[in-house]
Amino acid sequence: MVPIVLLGLLLRVGVGLYGYSGLGKPPMFGDYEAQRHWMEITYHLPPIEWYFNTTDNDLMYWGLDYPPLTAYHSWLCGAAAQGVNPDWISLGASRGHESPGHKAFMRGTVLLADMVTYFLPAIVIMLTDNRIFGAPCPAPMTVTGYALITYPGLILIDHGHFQYNCVSLGLVLAACCALFYRRDVLAAVLFSLALNYKQMALYYALPIFMYLLNRCWCERERNGLPGVLLKFTKLAFAVSSTFLILWLPFITNDGSNVLQVLRRLFPLSRGIFEDKVANFWCVLNVFYKIRPHFSNEQTALISGIATLLAVLPSCCHLLVTADRRTLLYSLFNTSLAFFMFSFQVHEKTILFAALPALLLFEVEPFHSLWFLTVSSFSMLPLFIKDGLVIPFVALTVFFALSMSVIAETKNVDILERKRFHSSLTVAFKLSMNLIVFLTGASLLLEPPAKYPDLFPLVISAVSAGHFGYFLLYFYWSQFKSCRTKEKIS
Amino acid sequence: MWWKIFGLVSCIKLLLMEAYKSTDFEVHRNWLAMTHSLPLNQWYVNDTSIWTLDYPPFFAWFEYFWSLAARLVDPEMLLVSNLNYDSRATVFFQRSTVIISDIVLALGAKKLSHYLCAHPLRKSSNQNHKWFSPSTVFLCLSLCNAGLLMVDHVHFQYNGILTGLLFLSIGEILEGNHELGAFYFSVLLNMKHIYLYVAPVYGVYLLRNHCWIEGKNGAFDVKKSLSKVGRLGTIFLLTTLVSFGPFIVHGQLFVVLRRLFPFKRGLCHSYWAPNFWVLYNIADKVLVILGRRLGWPLKEIRGSMTAGLVQEYPHTVLPSVTPGITLLLTVASMMPCLWKLWSHPGNPLHFVRSLIICAGCSFLFGWHVHEKAILIVILPLCFMAVLWRAEAECFLVVSLSGLYSLFPLLYPPEMLFVKAVLYLVFISYSFNSLQNLFRSRHPNSSFQFPLLNSFETIYAFGFSFLFVFEIVQLHKLSRLVSAYPFLYLMATSFYCSLGIIYGISRYYWNFLKTAPWKRKQKVF
């Protein structure tokens, strides 16, 4: 276990040597500058001004658009930066600051956040007995833990491109751990914290709500209806008090402040997707231009309905058969459905679908590995932009190769040839070759002058096709997995 | 198995491409340029760059071979006058050449691991396990060695291919193909002459086990023996002739040799390699300070030996050391080992042990030793470490201190955590896998590492203080440390030298006292 954790650290530190988003690209720079700017804003201004456009806080220049917990984290990092070198965050004057020392500091903050919020629950998973997922003989889930720690997408985005996804994903992971161990109230609190770090954690909200609802209903057998009510009240109290504490500084008499924060979190004006995203709308847009035909409000409504339709069957199924394995399937299906159909999706959001896929690794090794590889690949245009191609290749090959070696030592056929038809193995190999080819092509070939965005678009379309298949497959196995269990019992 | 481990570690090497690179990167770029754009008779003469060619001719050919590919990547790097040129393509290309030439290392390690599979020297319950068998552990320890990663893939050198040749040579000798083994070693010597230090082992072992033929009545057969010596000599001479021949034709033999053996350098490299002379230097310093207190009549000290330059330093109290003395000490320290090797023929493992010991002796007593030379001790030791517990214990101590002693090579602040994590990953893997291999009982107290005694455990913990010292030094957190910038380097070489001297001596002692006929071991 110690070598695995250290290996995870090595990969992170190694990626940290490379560039970050917006390196040397004035005037707007990139996510690195956004995070630095938030440290500057939160440290120097009172909380009431954080989400408002004021003389000191220009919302057009990387205005804060994540929930309060992100802001508090930025404040904490800002305070640390103030202690080390106040020039890094001096109000206004520090815009676009770049220096080796500052880079080391910023990388250090991500590493620390990763260690505290993501590695700890991953270690808990590593020590967890896999019998809680219905495995026949006792064994710790070391492989899942290993996958969680070495998954390339998350490392590249957090430690290369520069973001703090590890915090919200880590909190969700911790909430899942708590659910596995039947600590429902703790799970509710942890999940509320994750929601308050990144609003994208909302992707998981429905399945977790359904699961907890079912858990409440289960109290009926022991304590009857009062037990159900008591448990529900406890959970509701835990969630609402977590929210109340976190939002306290923004609550004013008329509530306008809260509304402003919400407007910042859910920007309707930014369109249905940005850049090229491997989802349904982006592919549809190739054949049928959405923007000229529908207003932003209309597209929001349409995408909302589409998402709901894609999500509901999985969630309702979870409500009826709430076991841990179905929870994971449902978490995956809803988050991927959100990624495919919801409004204002970024390419990085695929990480939220990757987390349940990682947890499903021991149940679905073949499809999980396939999905995880494609998910890293779908962010390739971003990595090319940030100069992260070498670490992308290194980490992805390392991950895929090491997973197959580990499966081999455990006498597991990573291609699950006995379970699936041989055409699926062929499809997998074709898909891997396609990935290698597209990576090579987008690095070496010049796109035709007429279509400068050809390769990002092709990469998005190919990934979106894959994701569509994975959504169908995992939906199918969610419903199938419990039926096989019924047969066994 | 071997190619999977090689593939995995190649990914890590790829990841380290962006890391700091030392002046050795420019050294090798210059050699690429010189071998490509200058005629043969200029290779060892040209001094446009201060980094003149000082490896034997086969290495120059190796550079020439790569320069053919370099032309396609970025022809700018092949201009001799283009000093300190490091475009992105150049860095990518040169880093890739190291990664690709490590295939030789992988082949050598594969050879040795096959030997371990085919001759189960020690009955191990893990023999057929995929991950925990001795052969796989050896593959991981050698291919993923943190020392090689730090020196080759960060600092920039080509030790991988050289070690690969050494492994191939050892593998052939273990299997009894002495002539092929001797050939590989001759090639190795013609790529980097530092391996001359272990040449006596080859000499003694091959003379005794290959050339020494006894007739039917047990008497020494002079004729057959001499013909064997002749064959071996021909192999060595022919290889050397191919390598040096073109330069002899140009009448440049002595020009080349002068470049290969520069005796103008000082006893210690700029940063003291952690060997015996560190203790000697420090003893001198202590005596000077003591002498000042007691009012001894002392000469004035001119240059400080910690000034950080490659220069000669006159000792003040203790007698100054000359190259002759170091050579004498090195040879004298090798003698018992070579005698044992001569007097106990028929055990090829004794050959590997002697190789390790002689490399260790030359590291401890040699003239102008580089800290990187410890790799010549550590890498063959990986092979022995998976065989016997006592050797695994020595391996751990020598690795702990020898790999830490490479830290000052990667001095820039951004490398601080990279090197620490590399070191820790490797050390923790070594402890885990070797403990598993030898089923060592769990240590009595929780403060004891597996396979180490409590004294060695305390020593191992000491490195964390040394690391804190480095952080303090780098970030100038303490005024005392800033006032003496070389204090950290001195402390590192002193502390590491303790472990290395202890580890090598213990290994030496174990070797001398083994009585092979009492051991239940069957080699063939």
UniProtKB/TrEMBL annotation, chain A:
It is an enzyme of class 2 (transferase). The keyword Nucleotidyltransferase does not apply. The keyword S-adenosyl-L-methionine does not apply. Pathway: Protein modification; protein glycosylation. It is found in: Endoplasmic reticulum membrane. The chain crosses the membrane at residues 104-127, 139-157, 164-181, 229-251, 300-320, 326-343, 350-368, 388-406, 426-445, 457-476. It is a multi-pass membrane protein. Its EC number is 2.4.1.-. This is Alpha-1,3-glucosyltransferase.
TrEMBL record, chain B:
InterPro entries: Glyco_trans_ALG6/ALG8. It is an enzyme of class 2 (transferase). Keywords: Endoplasmic reticulum, Glycosyltransferase, Membrane, Signal, Transferase, Transmembrane, Transmembrane helix. Its EC number is 2.4.1.-. The keyword Membrane applies. Pathway: Protein modification; protein glycosylation. It comes from the Eukaryota. It is a multi-pass membrane protein. Residues 1-19 form the signal peptide. The keyword Ligase does not apply. It is found in: Endoplasmic reticulum membrane. The chain crosses the membrane at residues 194-213, 234-257, 277-295, 316-342, 348-366, 373-390, 410-431, 451-474, 486-509. Belongs to the ALG6/ALG8 glucosyltransferase family. This is Alpha-1,3-glucosyltransferase. The lineage of its organism: Eukaryota, Metazoa, Ecdysozoa, Arthropoda, Hexapoda.
